[in-house]
Amino acid sequence: MSGEPLQRRELTVAAVERLGAYHLLRIADSAGPEPLAGQFAMLAAAEGWGGGQDERPFLPRALSIARRQDGQTLFLLEDVGPGTARLCALQPGERVLSLGPLGNGFTPPHDGRRALLAGGGVGIAPLAILQDQLPGTATALLGFRGSSHAPGAALLRDAVIATDDGSQGHRGTVTELLAAELESGPDAVVYACGPAGMLESVRALCEQAGVPAQLALEAPMACGFGACHGCVVPIRGGGYSRVCVDGPVIDACRLERVDEHAGAPA
Q: CATH number for the 9-102 domain, one of 3.40.50.1100, 3.40.50.620, 2.40.30.10, 3.40.309.10?
């Protein structure tokens, strides 16, 4: 990113929609910077952001930008901890504090390669805005735990779904869908976001097939701009990269593996 440093801004919740187990948070932001697909924002509720009057406030939560639409920025959330619980409970008219867009986004395919989008759970969010921004058609393969989470697929167009329990779509994993797509032709670039185990499977699969892949890593963050070094990941050949400023999108070939990232509850 270039230009002047971003400042945390106070914005208003325009609407909250339910997509099964997920909450789709719409924040009014007509004057905000236009994000690249794969970038994120650090969000916090302006009020009630903490465990109580005598307790410290929560850290802001890093959330992928799911879409820019009609002067609104959209985020996909699941209630999995105290911070996300408060964000999921927001109502229209309430205020949020937002810092973003942050980080590096996806790079469009070149050399005539087709785009394959592979997402798992709430990690489908950055693939929605990527599908919006890519020219032409991008195949979307999405994996969910079961029928309560599968409605999240409505965020993308014409998605092919896999569920762990077989309640919707293919019974199995999204990487099984991806493997079948790659067998039909390796002339692709894979764009993926989801849990670490899924991303490691995507990384290994694409390495074996000789297909380039860009992975949007998920990691708990305290600052979002590289100061705390709390989100570092090991890089192939030694050393570390910070997910917040060197990513969150990182070429899979730079990673030896994708590990579960320890951090604070969401």
A: 2.40.30.10
Q: Of 248, 255, 228, which is closest to residue 62 (Cα–Cα)?
A: 248
Please state the domain extents for the chain: 9-102, 114-254
Cα 187 to the center of its chain, rounded Å:
24
Residues constituting the chain: 266
CATH 3.40.50.80 fits 114-254, yes or no: yes
Residue 12: which H helix or E strand, with range?
strand 9-19
Binned at pLDDT 50, 70 and 90, residue 1 comes out as very low
Nearest-angstrom CA–CA distance, 250 and 83: 26
Please tell me the predicted confidence (pLDDT) of residue 71: 95
Whether residue 29 is predicted with pLDDT greater than 50 in this model: the reply is yes
Per the DSSP assignment, residues forming a β-bridge with 116 are: 139, 190
* Contact (Cβ atoms closer than 8 angstroms) between residue 41 and residue 98: yes
The angle, 0 to 180 degrees and rounded to 10, between the axes of the packed helices 174-183 and 196-209 is 10
Strands 114-120 and 188-193: parallel
The span from the CA of 30 to the CA of 11, in Å, is 10
**Backbone phi and psi for residue 250, each to the nearest 5 degrees, phi listed first:** -130, 135
Task: Using the predicted structure, report yes or no on whether residue 53 has a pLDDT greater than 80.
Answer: no
Residue for token pair 């097939």: 209
Cα four-point dihedral sign 216, 219, 220, 221: negative
